[in-house]
Specification:
Blueprint lengths: L2 E12 L2 E12 L3 E5 L6 H9 L6 E6 L8 H5 L1 E4 L11 H11 L5 H10 L13 H14 L4 E5 L7 H18 L2 E5 L3 H7 L2 E6 L2 E7 H7 E7 L11 E7 L3 E7 L10 E4 L2 H24 L1
Parallel strand pairs: 3-7, 3-8, 5-6, 6-7
Antiparallel strand pairs: 1-2, 1-4, 8-9, 10-12, 10-13, 11-12
Keywords: ATP-binding, Nucleotide-binding, Transport
Protein name: ABC transporter ATP-binding protein
Organism: Nonomuraea mesophila
């Protein structure tokens, strides 16, 4: 499988604090990849390293087979829309498009004009007068008209209202279908990833907890509910992801390649949000146990 981004033991340090440490990830081409994890997991740092905005403190990273931001040609292959969907408040919509044309050798002026017209953005309006949703759409237009092979979006809709989020993501989906490029989309909103992404990566404390095509992940993860029991009693082919217990009942999330037919359990399927929370909960529980062991 061809990769658009590969990182090996990647790290970035600010002073004495590690924002990303020992991160190893392999992101495949041809997908809309959802990157999800809690605050502080290292998502934004990873994406900025991938764009060449930051230099690693340790480890290595390649994007589309090259060093991020290493050459003008490499920069032209990657589009980036940051968290605050940055545009220049004092420039008009038309001036943004002219600037994009000057800076990007692969610029698709027709695509940019068509999107601006379809979105009913007045070319003479300054970006500072646009709504949050309109600024996000302008930023997306600039990223798409660059005609990248990889488009990276770092929580671009986090501050938008539901309608603006829907319109932004719908435009992204339509563009990926039409122009066939790879996307890495970071978001806290799992419902947005559910609508948009076909590949998932859960990143917690710089570590990839799970990665794979969404359909396959949902087909191989199950919730087991039944009488309380120790997780060590689970069959060897059922990998435990998370566990919760009451006095009488145990609920496990497990990963298993084969269907589970055990009358002792009520077996139910997971939603994407259930899956993400299970892996985040597992990491939280592991961290608590590690802290207790250190205290002892």
């Amino acid at each position: 499988m061809t990769s658009v981004l590969q990182a090996q033991a990647l790290g970035k340090k600010y002073g004495k604090r590690w924002a990303l440490r020992e991160c190893t990830v392999d992101i495949p081409a041809g997908h809309v990849v959802g990157l999800v994890g809690p605050n502080g997991a290292g998502k934004t740092t990873l994406l900025k390293l991938a764009c060449g905005q930051l230099e690693p403190t340790g480890g290595g990273i390649t994007v589309l087979g090259g060093r991020p931001g290493g050459t003008p040609a490499q920069l032209a292959r990657v589009g980036f829309v940051a968290q605050d969907t940055p545009v220049y408040a004092g420039l008009t919509v038309a001036e943004h498009l002219r600037l994009g044309a000057r800076l990007n050798p692969r610029w698709d002026a027709g695509l940019a004009r068509e999107r601006i017209a379809r979105l009913a953005l007045d070319p003479s309006h300054r970006a500072g007068r646009l709504s949050g949703g309109q600024r996000a759409q302008l930023a997306l237009t600039l990223g798409l008209a660059k005609r990248p092979e990889l488009l990276i979006l770092d929580e671009p809709v986090a501050s938008l209202d539901p309608l603006a989020r829907h319109e932004f993501l719908q435009g992204l989906i339509e563009a990926t279908v039409e122009h066939r490029f790879s996307v890495v989309l970071s978001s806290h909103l799992v419902s947005d990833l559910d609508r948009t992404c076909d590949y998932l990566i859960v990143l917690v404390e710089s570590r990839v907890q799970v990665a794979g095509e969404v359909d396959k992940l949902l087909a191989t993860h199950h919730r087991l509910t039944g009488s309380r029991r120790d997780p060590d009693r689970l069959p060897a082919d059922q990998h435990m992801v998370s566990a919760r217990h009451t006095d009488r009942q145990s609920t496990f999330v497990v990963r298993a390649d084969a269907p589970i037919h055990d009358p002792a359990w009520k077996v139910t399927q997971l939603s994407l949000e259930d899956l993400v929370l299970a892996y985040m909960d597992k990491q939280t529980a592991d961290s608590r146990r590690a802290a207790l062991e250190v205290q002892r």
